Hints:
By secondary structure, chain A is α/β, with parallel strands linked by helices. Chain A has 10 helices and 15 strands. Chain A is globular and about 90 Å long.
Amino acid sequence: MKDFKRAVLAVLSSIALTTGCSPFVDNNMIEEIAPVIFWYVADAGEGKLKISTVVPPLVREQKRLLTMQVDLLKQGGKDFNLIYYRELKVGQLRMVLINEEIAKKGLIRMVNTLLSDPAISPRLFLAIVQGNFDDYISAQLQKQPNLDYFLYRMFKHYEKTNQGEMTIVNLHDFLKRYYSPMPYPNLPVFKVSSNYFSYVGTAFFGRDKLKAIVQNMDDQIYQLINNDKYLKHLAIPALSTTLGQVRSSVQMKMNQDASSISVQVDLTGRIEEYQGDKNLLEGEQLADLRKEIESYLEKQTAELLKKMQRWKVDPLQMGSLSLGPLKKPLREKEWLNTWEHVKFDVDYRLHLQPSATALPVGR
Amino acid sequence: MATCSLYAKTSGYGGIYVMLMVNRLQILYFILSMPAYLVHPYMIWGIIAIGVLSQCNLMILSRWFASKYAAKGFQGFVQLFGERGVRFLAFAALFPVFVKVTVLTLGYVEIVQMFIFPSMDKIWLLLSVFVTCFYVAQQGIEKTIRFVVIAFLCTIWMIVLFFPFILPPLATYSNLLPLVPTEWSLQSWKGLLIVWAALSGPEYLICLAPWFNSNHNLIKYLTLGNALSILEYLLLFAASLSFFGSDYLRISNFPVVQIIRYLQSPVFERIDIILICIHLFHFVFAAALLLLYFYGAVRIIVGKWHEQTTRRGFVLASMAVLACMMIINQWFWTTGEEQYKWLALQVWLGASTYLLVPGLLLLAMKIKERLQA
């Protein structure tokens, strides 16, 4: 009897809670909301932001592009509701694409805003876009209605195993770098036009401001020695060679007074394509090619490092080499002064593995 | 009026319960936010050092458990301090018990609101958490002690989730450098104080001595519980430090929850929500125990300890606690600054009770022996 009374009480109170005086304020009725997958943020001039997204992501309904001009990022999230009949929710926000112009002015306010919202995952992907992404989306929406989702899958795909095609950075990675003693985050850069979308390379930041973008060979080297330590394909057009399945192990050493850094890279990979004149079946010529590749990479890497010094960024976090269990860590300013005058000693060692079929020269 | 015996003793509890209780009382609210206060890598040594101190303190406490007074429970205290003294001590204990239960409940409610129901009025959350605590507490002290097993099993497995964060690629080991303090500030002392306050809690076990089977070799279980807590704190601190880095950690409000938010599962997006909810078991155990302490202390103060406990009395005491909590929630826990003051108060109170209680008991025992001799 006592249990029965309790059960009745429980049922009655839950009825009261679910129907009448509900303490819940958020309405998440699935038919009435539209989770957004991405935001694209661009500069609209006069301190205003232009923010756009595609709705609806879930139901079978004509997709369309929503664009707003706002003063604040979150205001944009709110104002979308005023021009669309479903309430937009940010709980599924997966990507924030940021126009290059904004990135040059500084990102940290925007990124901190995203971080402080518990509904937004710290795994949110960030990327820089060159060109107008709105044009691209509105032109493609008829042909590929699920474009936003495909883009997200692309990020996800390359993030998962770090296979070295692209730099993929999420909110947490960016902020972790930003708040570290060497505040030089990086982000991927994509180029768009109305019917064209492509990966360009990696953007280097000094604190939250975009300083420079590296592409092609430089980007590949960056992936090799820092980001992923692996490249599925390393194409070297200058030597008519493509290396495949390249793994790297990098050893960096700084001397006592931080005046020079030696970078030793051990590459293991195989030649997957060769268009040159050498006969790779002959040991000597193969060794020649190996040396050529080594010295080419050494030269390119040294140049890349010098460029970084010029840009005053240290995305390889070489400053952390100066850390020790007993040493007081260098602050950013001190390190930057040292960094500009560091000499580099780059040494590559390429270990060529045999490929499934040898690549003799064509007759 | 229905009578109920909240403080009945029908069976004894073995040392394993002591271990679980020591561990769970040490790992309470502070575990979720502590890394944000410690920040510097050298605090790893701080945690170890304070852990060793805590161990010394537990050794003093175990001498109390081994004494003839402990097993007698209330009568033992009366023998040591006299009736008047016990009433005074109970009165003095009301405040720390109340602050602890308030900070624990409101702190948890705050986290729930921050991460799970940002749009909900906190009063509802407070009410539902409190009703759960009340339900557990009114089952009596024996069932509450038993509940520690559930609380322990529900939460201990979570440390497994933190292992990915101490391994690369998620961890950056250079964040753990330098390991030796290069500068020492007031903030560092505060960090040590917070660790000490976080490890407080076992001093509350003195009132449970009559329910334990054998009070003679408790030191083994106290040590195990303490060691487990220190390991947990170390793991969580090292994980959050290598995952965030010092500067990022400083701006993060509940780093342990923030870390969990980084986990992903194919089934459920927000793992942090589930884990925060599971923490409820743990917090309810502690709050229920403290509610029973509060009621017990009130009974001693008004001099009704020899009478049967009544449900009405317990309900009234709980209502008083709830009312105070609601008032605090409404007017004195609104801004982050006020919340920080409450936390500071709890840190100071917890640290001082943990420091004073075992020493005081030992001192009283010595004086008593000398007087008798």
